[in-house]
Structures are given as structure tokens and as C-alpha cells.
Design goal:
Layout: H1 20-31, H2 43-61, E1 68-69, E2 83-84, H3 100-113, H4 122-125, E3 132-135, E4 138-141, H5 155-160
Antiparallel strand pairs: 1-2, 3-4
Length: about 170
């Protein structure tokens, strides 16, 4: 699979919301202000993590993202963003391209993907399938007949996406 970044135009085969350069800059800015050494990886490893993070975001958040993909034909746009009709809680129009918070969340999830699977397949380890999942106050239901498995919360990355999702029975903290 090729590493293709969504540039805000609705790239047909996009596989990531963030670039390797964005990942590197994001962590360089944060490491300079902390004692944490941050992620150290090759460009090819980082691109794999970014694709895994984008896949995770697509599987978990696409059902609850506000707005709708800008291109009506699924083959014309590889990822959910860019979207049309994205408004915040006050009715203010948000950007139609790839929001910066989505890029940052992708990078946060990607860092975690470097050390563990973000969305483990519970059927491999427990013989169960996912029927529903919760991230913070978001609830996502998957079609299955198995038991419930709760997704691992990633508080910083999850919170970055709060303005982009439809609230599910409460406030996203």
C-alpha cells in the first residue's frame, strides 16, 4: 500500500491525514518543552504508524464525525475528510479541509501505534467480536453477535477530535 496523504482536496487513495514531516515537527515542538525524548523512528516506520492511526480514526470516528465527505462518490475520496457541513456547537462553520486538530490527533495515535496495536482484534485473543465501543463519552456500535469490548482510551488524541464529532449522550471532556 502506498503512503498517500490527504491534502484537503479529497484524494482518492489517501491513506493518512498527516505527513512524516508534520509528525516530526509536531514531536520536535513538544520534546523541546519537556523531558520526554519523544518518538524516534525511520520515515518508513512513521508512515506505517500514520496509516495505522488513520485507519483507527476511520473505524472508530467515521460513524460519529460531523459533516459529510465533500465528494459524494466514495471512490472519489479515500478518507472522510475533507467534509462539507461541519459546524461547531454554536453553529459556526468550521473548515472544509483537513482540520489541524485531526492532523494532530492522527500524530498522537500514530505515536501510540508505534508500540502497540490501536485496535486489537478481540476475536484473536478472546474469541469475542466487538459489538460496541466507547471512547470518552462517544459510543460506537458495530454489527456483531459477540460480547462488548471497550476500546482503549487515548485521552489527548480523543479530546483533540471532540469538536469534530457528534456528541453522544453527554459532553466530551
Amino acid at each position: 500500500m502506498a503512503f498517500i496523504v490527504e491534502d484537503g482536496t479529497g484524494v482518492a487513495n489517501a491513506t493518512s491525514y498527516a505527513t512524516w514531516a508534520q509528525f516530526t515537527t509536531y514531536w520536535a515542538d513538544r520534546v523541546a518543552a519537556s523531558a520526554d525524548p519523544g518518538p524516534a523512528s525511520s520515515e518508513s516506520d512513521t508512515e506505517l504508524w500514520l496509516v495505522a492511526a488513520t485507519d483507527y480514526i476511520s473505524r472508530v470516528f467515521n460513524p460519529v464525525f460531523k459533516g459529510r465527505p465533500a465528494n459524494d462518490r466514495p471512490d472519489d475520496q479515500g478518507l472522510w475528510f475533507p467534509v462539507t457541513g461541519l459546524y461547531d456547537e454554536r453553529g459556526n462553520h468550521l473548515i472544509d479541509e483537513v482540520p489541524e486538530v485531526l492532523v494532530h490527533a492522527t500524530i498522537e495515535y500514530a505515536f501510540r501505534a508505534g508500540s502497540a496495536s490501536l485496535l486489537a482484534d478481540p476475536s484473536i485473543t478472546t474469541g469475542q467480536t466487538i459489538s460496541s465501543a466507547a471512547v470518552g463519552s462517544l459510543s460506537v456500535t458495530f454489527a456483531s453477535g459477540g460480547a462488548t469490548t471497550i476500546l482503549t482510551p487515548y485521552p489527548l488524541a480523543d479530546r483533540l477530535l471532540r469538536e469534530l464529532v457528534i456528541p453522544q449522550g453527554g459532553t466530551i471532556h
